[in-house]
């Protein structure tokens, strides 16, 4: 452990590691392969706390550009907005006295849950042995075992991710009708959950209204997705919202320099991507890379972290 820390001290000088998490269900969910359950998440946080100086993301970005970053600095972030967070991830963070930023998709406060949660719900409640997906131009998907369901969800997510938002909604409604559910049945984060997390001292950041791929939106829709979500969040938590997470988050694939401009114009001070790697003093405040170590053992986590220091995140041209 000490040797590993010594190695990290050298490779991490002047660099900021930002970690990315999603739902953190109470137990690992067989449908969501790769999503950490609470026990594994807690072990991962212990490792991060022992290894890094964990700062609030905003403070870390300021230190980064002032060249005053403490050695082995890191920040913790969570994307999307899940009802599990309030009594799950946020409680575990509190027990370990760790700061974090939660990036929220706000459509779910107005009866529009995230598309991936709608898909997961369809797959979870489907009682047919096979899901007929002809109407959405996919081959039929077996639903017999939990492994079948996990594979089906993976195939559906892959198919839906890059659909234009209007078509994605149409297809979702078709599948919901087919299995006899409605989007209002899907578990979603409530305003109460949001305010509770904010009042416990965690930073709230914006993650659009409905989590579209910004590159698939027309200019007006992209501007709305970026700007309106900030106004909504500020109205709900009564605090300034200064950080933004790009949906899906890959520079040049999911967002472009035009979207970076929109994020700046909407008044955000910094933004995070999903590119692996670490930030240094030359990294744009609007393209901070993030990484999720997946473990499961400590030596494996250490190797994943060291490798992440050598990832070179792609950087888009960032006009001043
Ligand atoms: Zn997201």
TrEMBL record:
Gene Ontology biological process: carbohydrate metabolic process
PROSITE patterns registered for this protein in UniProt: NODB (PS51677)
Alphabetized GO MF terms: hydrolase activity, acting on carbon-nitrogen (but not peptide) bonds
NodB homology domain ranges (all copies): 72-320
SUPFAM superfamilies: Glycoside hydrolase/deacetylase (SSF88713)
Keywords: Signal
InterPro entries per the UniProt record, alphabetical: Glyco_hydro/deAcase_b/a-brl, NODB_dom, Polysacch_Deacetylase
Keyword Signal set for record: yes
Entry GO terms, CC: extracellular region
Major location category of this protein: secreted
Compartment annotation: Secreted
PANTHER family documented for this protein: POLY-BETA-1,6-N-ACETYL-D-GLUCOSAMINE N-DEACETYLASE (PTHR34216:SF3), PTHR34216
Official protein name in the record: NodB homology domain-containing protein
Species whose genome carries this gene: Rugosibacter aromaticivorans
């Amino acid at each position: 452990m000490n040797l590993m820390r010594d190695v990290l001290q050298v490779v991490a000088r002047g660099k900021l590691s930002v970690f990315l998490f999603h739902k953190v269900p109470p137990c690992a969910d067989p449908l969501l392969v790769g999503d950490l359950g609470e026990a594994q998440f807690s072990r991962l946080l212990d490792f991060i706390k022992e290894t890094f100086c964990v700062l609030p993301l905003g403070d870390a970005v300021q230190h980064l550009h002032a060249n005053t970053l403490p050695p082995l600095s890191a920040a913790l972030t969570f994307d999307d907005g899940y009802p599990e967070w309030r009594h799950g991830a946020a409680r575990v963070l509190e027990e370990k006295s760790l700061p974090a930023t939660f990036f929220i998709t706000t459509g779910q406060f107005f009866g529009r849950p995230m598309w991936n949660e709608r898909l997961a719900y369809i797959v979870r409640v489907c009682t047919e042995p096979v899901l007929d997906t002809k109407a959405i131009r996919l081959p039929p998907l077996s639903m017999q075992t939990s492994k079948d369901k996990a594979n089906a969800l993976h195939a559906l997510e892959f198919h839906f991710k890059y659909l234009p938002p209007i078509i994605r909604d149409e297809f979702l409604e078709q599948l919901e009708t087919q299995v006899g559910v409605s989007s209002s049945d899907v578990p979603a984060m409530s305003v109460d959950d949001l305010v509770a997390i904010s009042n416990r001292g965690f930073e709230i950041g914006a993650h659009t209204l409905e989590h579209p791929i910004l590159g698939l939106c027309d200019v007006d829709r992209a501007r709305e997705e970026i700007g309106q979500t900030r106004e909504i969040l500020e109205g709900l938590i009564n605090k300034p919202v200064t950080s933004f997470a790009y949906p899906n988050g890959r520079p040049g694939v999911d967002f472009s320099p035009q979207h970076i401009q929109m994020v700046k114009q909407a008044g955000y001070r910094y933004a995070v991507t999903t590119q692996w790697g670490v930030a240094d003093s030359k990294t744009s405040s609007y393209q901070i890379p993030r990484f999720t170590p997946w473990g499961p053992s400590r030596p494996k986590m250490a190797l994943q972290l060291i490798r992440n220091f050598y990832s070179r995140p792609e950087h888009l041209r960032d006009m001043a």
